[in-house]
Amino acid sequence: MENIAYSYQYLIYFYATMISVVYVTLAILGYINITRSKIKYTRREEDKLKNNPEIAPGISVIAPAFNEEVIIIDNVNSLLSLDYPNFEVIIVNDGSKDKTLELLINNFELREIQFPYIEKVRSKPVKRVFKSNLFKYKRLIVVDKVNGGTKADAMNAGLNVAKYNYFINTDVDCILARDTLTKIILPVLDSKIPVIAVGATMRMVNGCEVNEGKITSVTPPRSYFPLFQETEYLRSYLVAKLGWSFINCIPNVSGGFGLFHTPTVIKARGFDPRSHAEDMDMTLRMIANERENEREYRIVQIPDSLCWTEGPPNLKILARQRKRWGRGLLQIFVVHRKFLFNPKYGRTGWIVMPYALIFELLAPIIEFTGFLFLVYLMLTNQVNFSTFWLMLLFVYLIGVTISLITISYDLSVKKVYRSYTDYLWLIFFSSLEALFYHPLIVIFSLKGYLEFLFLKEFKWGKMTRQGYSKSTPTEIIGTTSQKA
Amino acid sequence: MKLNTHNYKEILTALSLPEFWEDQLSMNDVNTNSIALRMLHGIKENITGGVISRRIQTDNKDIRKFAKSMYLEIDSTDAFKFLEDDFDRDFNALDELRIHSALKKRHHQKPLPPIIQWVNMAQKIEFKIFLIKEIGLFQQMDSAPQLLELYLQKVDYSIKAQIVDTLGMLGYEKAVPIFIESFNQNPQEVKDKIIDAFGKLGGEQALRFLENVYYQTYNKETLVKILRNIRSIDHDGRVYAKLENSVSTEFEKIAISYIEQDTAEIYEQ
């Protein structure tokens, strides 16, 4: 027993050291990427794209909607107001049972059209396709389909309708910055090697002021969970993904927001409706397809905050979200185990997938067993408290330092909050993350793993929308529902 | 808000800003050079190609390419010299955007010289394709016969596809019989471009050809493309009506109806 305890303590020591080294490395690479991006892409490049529509590539924005009557109109208005010369907006109504479709038809004066639907990737049947009678909504297409139960299925239907070579995969609860499309397409243009996907920073919309689908003022969320999640998101995008992007090793372009090369996604057979992490699954299948066919590719992350999404407002919804992510992560390693340590898949097989296995999938297990082990050591009086507090403080400070670095990176990209007090508020909460928020994430992730292993059927986590618009209900035509 | 250009120029001169940024451009730091180039690009007044030429041989590809596109925009002696030389070894789509924008500005001042001369000099396929596209965008009709000649030579299929596209943009009707003759010897990429070009070129011969291709096509995406192009050149609607009466599948019926709606799309304001 003594030997096991001794070895376990060493294991934890090396594990913590390794994760710190990896994060510091990613932070350095992320910083280089931010600096490069700031120098390379400015308003001038964006203006050139806008002023030369004849050579700006077309982009389809696809957003599936299932029972989204509270936010659908604001969101579609927001998407239609994107500042880019060549784009279309495809809303896929995934068999909503509420008034989502009715609202869309009434507010955008939609009419059913005959559409030559070609099933390039599999999805549940499409019932109808709508377009607007009004010129100002000419970019809008609404696809009404049989409910497929997953976002992946609805995305595939949207893909079958999309006409452009690039598409944005987003959620209907997301609000995009007006300059999203110019910013996200620039790295695609600026590469000799084909760029198959681009990700950007996502943050919480909770706390922002939104008027008619446009963000008029950005402040950190006022409720606890989205506030914790804000720093967590920033850390993931500005440190981890930007760092991985430096060595072309991004394993996952977020399902909430990302640009994809349409033919590459179609060649990889579209999104998988059976996946619990359809975004990572899609990214990995694209990588596999490119590598197996010996084609060069790049997946890029840009530092700009382009997408605002609603964070879980309470514990119940946070638990639902994190259990699904836990199930998804475990499923990824079951489905895509071929990547692990396989030279055929290059850095993805040798670096990023082993990293995700050891430091993401196994992390909740190691942290939980570590806690139990600590309790055992305490009960058996084997803890040297003078060292214990020192070690604990050290680990805590590393976590806080990474969060501080993240927030400083965010500020260096662009000051999005109105005042510096908002940043102090974010820093204060990030210092509490390890004590109050992280333990919950560990528990929910473990529950997700157990659900994946022992339950046969899962209910798809549905986010309960609070809505965020200032528009009054009378401005929305044809709804009897109350807006939050 | 309109800029008071007189005062603006006075301030630039009084503060010696162009000189300051010129000095910054000669520093040995990538970030400083990059900022200096952008500042000089913004100032433009009294900036000559000679100032920029300091950075056109630099190792940093972003600065080098930016400097070259800026040179193309502002130099008054030999602005087009980089177009003779494939522009840059790291040429990509962002450079296309920058060059196109610079050429557009030049074109507003004075018609551009024939772009075809650089097509003949270009070694890189991507750059050749870009220049051929520009011929169409700047409507350099005089280059059409040479492009058609190039089409008949043994060149890469993506170059052929771009030539077809450009000749379509230029409305060069003499290309129709040649495209018809070579249609089946080409891959789908070129065939698709020929179908689209015929939708711009028009004429009885092109219309009859599209009708024939329609009956031989199984690819659904190509079917929709052919229908759209027939619709745009079939002015009396005769061929379109014939197709409508002879549809054999539900998909074709829907596609015909879709194209009708789409091409006749009249929106309420």
From TrEMBL, chain B:
InterPro entries: ARM-like, ARM-type_fold. This is HEAT repeat domain-containing protein. It comes from the Bacteria.
